[in-house]
Amino acid sequence: MAWIFLFVAGLLETVWAYSMKLSDGFTRPVASIVTIVAMIFSFALLALAMRALPLGTAYTIWTGIGAVGAFVLGIVLLGEAVTPMRLFAAGLIVSGIVLMKLSSPA
Q1: Where are the transmembrane segments (predicted)?
Q2: What is the predicted pLDDT for the residue at 68?
């Protein structure tokens, strides 16, 4: 169950990062509220996952899912640049996530 909590927490990190961008510095109320609510639930699920998972594993995977998710949303929804170097960097993050999962005893 901890891995499910961690995965959903990572997805919510992506949500709050994207909605924070849309909040325009917390000047747009709906996007600001979505950001804060997603943050709360993301942190809560991360805390639940950390009951069973090592700190380094949980935190690395949580931030990795959020980083890659934000990267993908930036490209797909915000028209951000797709360059070979950015794709390579995202691939390294995904590789790190997979290796952390494989190396975790839990």
Answers
A1: 33-53, 60-79, 85-102
A2: 95
